[in-house]
Amino acid sequence: MKVTIRRTCVGLSAYIPKKDLEEPIISVEKENLWGGFVLLRNGWRLALPDLPQDTRLPITVEARKLSRGD
């Protein structure tokens, strides 16, 4: 799914246009964000692509929603 990651005054947020949903990112697997998963406030876990650490925000990427067992 397409996800736009951006920096806000309170941290990172993820916007999913298909669902018209914007949620704060409350946890990241990898410190540099890319190549791991992020946890949204609504409980969704999204796997992000492996991008260079200096990737500028905002950016729209193809992410994969992980089930609770992944």
TrEMBL record:
NCBIfam families: nifT_nitrog
Domain of life where this protein originates: Bacteria
Gene Ontology biological-process annotations: nitrogen fixation
Protein's name in the database: Nitrogen fixation protein NifT
Pfam families on file: NifT
Listed InterPro entries: NifT (IPR009727), NifT/FixU_barrel-like_dom_sf (IPR024044)
